[in-house]
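Structure ticket #2291
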Amino acid sequence: MNKKGQVTIFIIIGIVIVVGIILLFMFVGDFDVESPADLGPQAFVDKCVKDAVEVSVAKMLFNGGEIVPSHAIAYDGDEWNYLCYQADFYKGCYNIHPMLEMQIEAEIVRDTQDEVQECFNTMRIDFEDRGFDVGGGPTEYSVNLLPEMVQISLSKRIDVSKEGASQSFGNFDTEILTPIYELVQISMDVVNAESQYCNFEYNGYMLLYPKYDIRRIDYSNSKIYRLVDRRSGAEFRFAVRSCAFAPGM
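Resolution: structure written out below.
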């Protein structure tokens, strides 16, 4: 084959490659992997709700069990929510969040209920734009902190129909993996010890439960606690003011 023929072949191959790349980008640009109609109602709602709850759980861990800390001390540029507090000196603190686990569950629902409803609204609009008829019932939504997970209980009747064919959905239960339950249980142990004995022996606790890293800093008559799950890196942060010494002591 002469040089002119080889050049022609290379030019043709180059054109084919360029056209292929252009078509690939055009296809990828039009492909929406998160479209409700492409994923199906249950898969789309599952991902959408999980994303919302994961963000809310991160808030609970960072803010000591509340969306916004209600009684906190400023330290290192952040607000650290008190779980146990005593304003007087030399006295053990009072547990100001005795139902912490249930409180966090309620806070997560309150923080995410609008986003959960928006997941269903987005799904409905997408299906209707594609010519489907969509009907639905009321939403029932709750969360439960369980070992190594947050269980999401979600039910809502959804009827999708088009050209005589229909399908119904109702159960959208799902879960996310997180050690928040375990970290909350440890925080309760901390609060009980601080309330009764003015101290929590965290070094001994870590010997018994080496999967957790417990850090404490004494600051301004308060104790800053960080409970870390070593495997996941998840961290629950809070403060305690118990048996504080009077100034000058």
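Closing remark: The longest strand covers residues 149-162.
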